Amino acid sequence: MSLLHQPAPDFSLDATDGRVSLGAYRGKKLILAFFPLAFTPG
Length: 42
Known about the structure:
Blueprint: E1 12-15, E2 18-21
């Protein structure tokens, strides 16, 4: 089953300026940039 063009499930994550929820952007275009190794030693 393809997930293309399907709405993403709502989730929340910690940001530098507080907690952000995907649901707050429902109906808007959004780009999520994720850098798991940013600011980590090594």
